[in-house]
Amino acid sequence: MACLIGLIIFGIMGIFSASHRALAKEAFDCVFRRITLRPCNSGFKEKIKGKILSRLINKSPFTARMVNRHYEILSWIFFILMVGSTVWVLRGGYNFYVYGSCNGLNASGFCAFDPNGDNNKISSVNGDSSTCGIVQKSEKTVTLKNIDLSSFPAKNIGSKDTVVFIGCYDCDYSRKAYPDIQKLVAKKDANYIFAHYPAKGNITDKLAYAGYCIYKNDGDKFWDWNTYLFATDKNYILDPVNLDTMLQKFNFDVKKTEECIASPETKKAVDSQVIELNKTNIYGTPTIFINQKAFVGPKPYRVYRSAINKFIFF
Amino acid sequence: MLDINKIRKDFKILSDEKAPIYFDNACMSLKPNTVVNAMNTYYYEFPACAGRSAHKMGDKVTKKIKETRTLIAKFINADSQKEIIFTRNTTEGINLLANSFPFKSGDIVLVSDKEHNSNLVPWLRLKEKAGIILKIIPGNNDNTFNLENFKEQVIGAKFVSIGHTSNLDGVTNPAKEIIEIAHKNGVLVHLDAAQSIAHQKIDVRDLDVDFLSFSGHKMLGPSGTGIFYGKQKLLEDLAPFMVGGDTVESTTYESYKMLEVPEKFEAGLQDYAGIIGLGEAVKYLDQLSFKEISEHEIKLNTYITEELRKFPKVKIIGPTDPVLRGGIINFYIENTDMHKFAIILDEMAGIAIRSGQHCVHSWFHSKKIYNSARVSVYFYNTMEEAEIFISNFTKILKII
Ligand SMILES: Cc1ncc(COP(=O)(O)O)c(C=O)c1O
After folding, report:
1. Is B119's C-beta closer than 6 angstroms to any atom of ligand 1?
2. CATH number of B35-286
3. Contact A57 B399 (CB under 8 A)
4. Which domain, by its residues, includes A10?
């Protein structure tokens, strides 16, 4: 058993140091002999045991005696722990690659690869407009089932993959995720639906109405407008005095758009869109559905790409 | 009196502040600086062939090799430097003998019951190859040599090959008596002096030994050096088992004419640096007194033996009296793998001892002892080192 543990440990340490490489070779020889049912002749087990005991003997003879007596059992315990932690690390690595968190999709527990939890930060939609942080909640209840998205801006209709982006203009994490989703949609020609969700209250209402009107009146021109809003300083876009200038910039009919924004039908339509979005059980923005799977918080691009790829990498 | 502090300065490895406690002298001794320097000088200044080339460098090597041969002849009091054959080690010497001596099927060869593999395997092989009969002389209960058994067995034997000092327990066999008895019975004797050459004066003429082998590396010399001695007229009758360059005077396509002894046994280019280093080792040993070396070893052995005796489970191989065991204390604990001790001592305190069956597997198998740990001291070891060993050994014993 000591040989096997030694092989794994020294194999890894051997990458960095030549002396450990030599021990790894000895351990390999020992494991190989065991596999071929020959006795381990390298004395490797005794060597490692001796090294451990010599370190303990002056510090705590009692511990040294115990280690000597129960060496085989301790080896097994360490081996099992090592296998367990290796599986755990591999699983964490896989989760991190595929979901952006070691703990699984949208899980915001501590992850060594993402110590600040950046990949799971969201703007909460629980009514507290100031919340911009980690919110522990399960994405399992977040769903697109029975949700009518027909009134939201959509493109590439009929594609095999569907990406739904629910985000808000004012939310930093939505703004962070937005360019990656644009890139993904462009690359994969995915059916793309954009839904604005006012996570921080009605401060973004006017822009939501504007978006609704632009898509209604000018169709696909909406997408450049939308991208502009996500890319431009949020203090500027949220200031109502700048709205006309922005509309002019895109050659929209300012008057017509302003009228549409002010009309009660628009408010009603946008309100009913929000009601529809609430049915998804959304708890934070951005929430991105890739083929029905919900990704909450801004994930690295590879996470979105893996979700859409058939076999993770391609 | 040996001035150990002064002596230790002659060994680079021992003058270091963090010098190891080297207790594996039966395997390999340390080398004084003079030996290493002499070898370096050869490599740096005249790294040429001996005996072949006419240039100055070649001449110098030839001279140095001859000097060393003479030194060694004097060291063991051989009749002539022609009786000194350079080998790689004791093992090669014994193989040379076993393969060159005209053994015939049915010849009886006697060895003791605790021979090093190097003085057992060549004979076991000869048993297979030439049909000799190999007989083992049973020793006494305390592992000392039983002359009575020997006297009985030597009758009708052809050859005796016996370890002079055992690497198992440090016991020196009564070589002079053995040889006398053998000769009375018309039997030739080879002594394996691997363990004795560095610890006691060996006088081949006084012993009247016929053949003798030893290793340079156990007597302060470079590793891979050794000597095979034989009485000249006996050597002349041996047919070398390795031939080629440097063993012949001349050749035609059909025949060859061998050189005289010792050259006819030294096939191919030799380890000139090693031989020169060995010469320096002999010079170093020559300026010390074997009596004082032996007294010092016995003093250390007595202390270690007494301390180990305090633990009833520790069993020392060989006679109780440390005086009979020279510089060797070989011990074991029943049902315990003694490698553990060697490894931990090394890791804990840089104490180098040997563990295992010490190439005397046959003895361990016959006694059903798994293995042992061997401390072997030499003149440069100190009492303080022995105390450190005992203190660390005691600690280990408490946890094992
Ligand atoms: C008694 C004895 N004979 C023979 C040998 C073999 O010596 P070498 O390995 O130098 O040939 C040894 C080495 O330990 C020995 O102790």
Report:
1. yes
2. 3.40.640.10
3. yes
4. 2-90
Q: For the whole model, what pTM was predicted?
A: 0.76
Q: For residue A105, which of A131, A142, A133 has the smallest C-alpha distance?
A: A142
Cβ within 8 Å of A, B 336-365? 337, 339-340, 343-344, 346-348
Break chain B into its structural domains and give their ranges. Answer: 4-30+289-397, 35-286
- One domain, residues A198 and A293: yes
* Contact assignment for B399 to A58 by CB distance below 8 Å: no
Q: What is the pLDDT along chain B (400 residues), one digit of tens a residue?
A: 899 999 999 999 999 888 999 999 999 999 999 999 999 999 999 999 998 788 999 999 999 999 999 999 999 999 999 999 999 999 999 999 999 999 999 999 999 999 999 999 999 999 999 999 999 999 999 999 999 999 999 999 999 999 999 999 999 999 999 999 999 999 999 999 999 999 999 999 999 999 999 999 999 999 999 999 999 999 999 999 899 999 999 999 999 999 999 999 999 999 999 999 999 999 999 999 999 999 999 999 999 999 999 999 999 999 999 999 999 999 999 999 999 999 999 999 999 999 999 999 999 999 999 999 999 999 999 999 999 999 999 999 999 8
Together in a domain, A251 and A127: yes
Question: Cα separations (Å) of A25 from A5, A30, A34, A40, B344?
Answer: 13, 9, 14, 13, 21
List the CATH code of the domain at B4-30+289-397.
3.90.1150.10
Ligand 1 center to residue B65 CA distance, Å?
Answer: 24
- What CATH number is attached to the domain comprising A168? 3.40.30.10
Tokens representing residue B106 in the block: 């049915």
**What token pair was written down for B38?**
């002499």
* CA dihedral over A154, A160, A164, A165, signed as positive or negative: negative
Of B188, B212, B329, B359, catalytic: B359
- Beta-carbon separation of A61 and B395 below 8 A: yes
Residues B278 and B284: their CA atoms lie apart, in Å, by: 10
Which of A73, A90, A107 is a domain's end point?
Answer: A90
Tell me, yes or no, whether A78 and A144 share the same domain. no
Contacts of B346 in chain A (CB under 8 A): 50, 54
Partner residue facing B343 (CB), from A46, A61, A65: A46
